[in-house]
UniProtKB/TrEMBL annotation:
Keywords from the UniProt entry: Lyase
Higher taxonomy: Bacteria, Pseudomonadati, Pseudomonadota, Alphaproteobacteria, Hyphomicrobiales
Organism, scientific name: Pelagibacterium lacus
Protein's name in the database: Putative pterin-4-alpha-carbinolamine dehydratase
Gene3D superfamilies linked to this entry: Transcriptional coactivator/pterin dehydratase
PANTHER family per UniProt: PTERIN-4-ALPHA-CARBINOLAMINE DEHYDRATASE (PTHR12599:SF0)
InterPro entries cross-referenced by the UniProt entry: PCD_sf, Pterin_deHydtase
GO molecular function: 4-alpha-hydroxytetrahydrobiopterin dehydratase activity
Top-level taxon in the UniProt lineage: Bacteria
Length: 98
């Protein structure tokens, strides 16, 4: 684990280890961790986005995301830190718990 402060970008091996405990999340070469969620229909996808929005607002950390009919793609990166931080992993875990 890196010994940098809690808001510092994490090293790739640490991110990959953390993602091992999350289903379907990947780390891109560009940096964000990402996952695509697929639902039965648009209304379920939109309901999921609403629940994620409430989590993100409470955490003060917001995803980059897109919606196309029944799928929602979420990418998490801490832009002002220039990489993935613990905040991104925490939000990914919270999203998984929905």
């Amino acid at each position: 684990m890196t010994d940098a402060g809690p808001g510092a970008p994490l090293e790739r091996p640490e991110i990959e280890t953390a993602l091992g405990a999350l289903t379907g999340w990947t780390l891109s070469e560009a940096g964000p961790i990402a996952k695509t969620f697929t639902f039965k229909d648009f209304s379920r996808a939109f309901a999921f986005m609403t629940r994620v929005a409430l989590l993100a607002e409470k955490a003060g950390h917001h995803p980059d995301w897109s919606n196309s009919y029944n799928s929602v793609e979420i990418a998490l990166i801490t832009h002002d830190k220039g990489g993935v931080t613990r905040k991104d992993l925490d939000l990914a875990r919270a999203i998984e718990a929905l």
